[in-house]
Amino acid sequence: MDLGEWLVRKGLALDWPQYSKGRYGGAQRDAEHAGRGIWKGSYVEPWLYRACIRASAKPSDCSDDANAHH
Q: Are 38 and 11 contacting, i.e. CB atoms less than 8 angstroms apart?
């Protein structure tokens, strides 16, 4: 079993296409449609949050309230 795919399918991790080349895209769509794990609420992808912090250094501008997937 592919642990990465399992984590993404359970909604416990995100497919990061920069590194996975989209390998877990289907598993992520399944988790999103089923509302599993992080897909139950809102979030900001970690790589987007870090880029936002580097650009503005204001966590409130980078929070899930400002940039979330719902």
A: yes
pLDDT exceeding 70 applies to what percent of the chain? Answer: 91
- 44 in Cβ contact with 57 (< 8 Å): no
Decide: 68 and 42 in contact? Cβ < 8 Å.
Answer: yes
Cα end-to-end span (Å), the chain: 30
Residue with tokens 């809102």: 42
- The pLDDT value given to residue 37: 95
Per-residue model confidence as pLDDT tens digits over 31-51: 999 999 999 988 788 888 889
Question: To 10 degrees, the CA torsion angle through 40, 25, 59, 67?
Answer: -70
